[in-house]
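Re: beginner question about structure tokens

> Can someone show what the tokenized structure looks like for a real chain? I only ever see the sequence side.

Sure, here's an example I had lying around. Input first:
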Amino acid sequence: MITKVDAARRQLDLAIELYFRSADSVSIHTLASAAGNILSALCKANSRGRSLAKDWSFLSRPELRKTMHDAVHSLENFFKHGSKDPSATVSLDPKITELLLFDACYMHQSLTGESSTLMLAFTVWFRVMNPEYAVAQPETITPVRNLSQKYGKGDRARFLGDFIRHRTDPV
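And the corresponding structure tokens:
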């Protein structure tokens, strides 16, 4: 039997694996969105955590919150429904997918108290590459500062390999 949490974890882990391999962006986005929707519903039903991406409250500017909300829902509907405007096209901003992945990792941790190695790797990567979203600035945390100097945006696969190779802490 597959539980909803298990389905979301598997979708999320595969999306992250594909992300680190720089694989198909539509597949990554669709898997991240599906996992996020499951986790958001479960968090709400269990009163544990919440989706940061539902209201985008962590973004400081209200106009940016609305822009992100609209973009996420537009992409989700585009990738899910083929009957509406069959000749339509869409532009996929990878930053939106990265935010959905980060949000799903956050919800999974809030809901289960656990994170897979892939979820932890993505969370670290996201915080290193996007210091503007961190509560504590990454440059004030020595290990994160060291990582940001070692890896660039194009070093995803190398980062994941190093992360898994050096990971010794139990989850």
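Each token stands for a local structural state, so reading them left to right follows the chain. The longest helix spans residues 25-46.
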